[in-house]
UniProtKB/TrEMBL annotation:
Keyword Transferase: yes
PROSITE patterns: SAM_MT_PRMT
GO molecular function, one term: histone methyltransferase activity
Record-given protein name: Protein arginine N-methyltransferase 6
Segments passing through the bilayer: none
Length: 321
């Protein structure tokens, strides 16, 4: 069964109902819950957010949207009962939910939280988390060079010249949206915000089409292999869960968008561009459009679809283009 957090294959022509069925079937398998619960930083941040706000929780009615392995509102067979169509006997004071997908919005679970908020949360109620921010930055990846170097090595290894494969290998790598744990030294310019969502106010329309311009000034001599995305969420009481490469690692890692053509930078190289996240080919996927130019060179455009998640060299799929 696919891990619903990252579907590794694309299913053309799938309906919304089929996607939902597969999504919830995925969450009915124990592996994905093991992965989430073994992410101690994630789980402990939720625990801290609740314990450090115990005055808010004391004697209050709380709904956990997508409770997973405990008894509450849960749509997969992992739950004893209930879907979001249930009617609660009264409004709730607090909604807790761990809804964040890769790139924040992959999986589309935020829409369920918005639905629950609008249906059940008291006007003065609290949301855990209450804000979410998506960040972007250019990155360098030495492993990318090793992956291309492999084709150069073939002549010494097997006495077969295979350097001509390099352009195709680059296309294959950049056709996928990849998950990778980056380190702070891999980030080559100050990160910027793609969006900041106030969970009390955000609407389904706000997250249908998110577009942001960016302008990065690079730190120095480097090679940029792509752009990476990660998110932070904040809970009441200034408790932050950050999946940034500057912090401890999470099962979310970072999302990396490799470029067809990596480029060199020097101090203050200017990268201008924009990123846009919209619904992908399947209802819970994202289509990502990246445009960028380097020091006022001609603008390049790359498109990505999160139907093509990969987690490294072994699972790179060939591009259709
Ligand atoms: C990321 S998991 C979190 C599980 C658990 N809260 C935890 O933190 O370990 C999200 C859960 O929400 C459930 N879910 C997603 N959309 C839902 C919906 N519309 N109604 C009820 N449950 C939903 C999924 O089946 C999944 O178990």
């Amino acid at each position: 069964m696919d891990n619903p957090r990252k579907r590794l294959c694309q299913r053309d022509g799938e309906s919304e109902e089929e996607t939902d069925q597969l999504y919830f079937n995925g969450y009915a398998s124990i592996e994905v819950h093991e992965e989430m619960l073994m992410d101690t930083v994630r789980t402990m941040t939720y625990r801290d957010a609740i314990l450090k706000n115990q005055d808010l929780f004391k004697d209050k009615i709380v709904a956990d949207i997508g409770a997973g392995t405990v008894y509450a509102v849960e749509a997969s067979d992992m739950a004893i009962q209930t879907r979001l169509e249930i009617v609660l006997p009264e409004k709730v004071d607090i909604i807790v939910s761990e809804w964040m997908g890769y790139c924040l919005l992959y999986e589309s679970m935020l829409k369920s939280v918005i639905h629950a908020r609008d249906s059940w949360l008291k006007p003065e109620g609290y949301l855990f988390p209450s804000t979410a921010t998506l960040h972007i930055a250019p990155f360098v990846d030495e492993e990318y060079e090793d992956r291309l170097g492999l084709w150069e090595d073939m002549s010494s290894r097997y006495k077969v010249a295979m350097k001509s494969m390099i352009p195709f290998a680059k296309k294959c790598i950049s056709a996928n949206v990849e998950l990778k744990q980056l380190m702070m030294e891999d980030i080559v310019a100050s990160p910027l915000q793609v969006c900041r969502l106030n969970i009390h106010k955000v609407t389904p329309r706000d997250i249908e089409d998110i577009a942001q311009n960016f302008e990065f000034k690079c730190y120095g001599w480097n090679r940029v292999h792509g752009f990476t995305l990660w998110f932070d969420v904040e809970f009441p009481g200034n408790i932050v869960l950050s999946t940034s490469p500057f912090k401890e690692s999470f099962h979310w890692s970072q999302v990396v968008l490799y470029l067809d053509e990596p480029f060199r930078t020097v101090q203050d190289t200017l990268i201008r561009g924009s990123i846009r996240l919209q619904k992908g080919k399947q209802p819970r996927d994202l289509a990502i459009q990246l445009k960028y130019s380097v020091d006022n060179s001609a603008e390049k455009e790359q498109l990505y679809d999160t139907g093509y998640w990969t987690t490294g060299v072994s699972s790179v799929t060939s591009p259709e283009r």
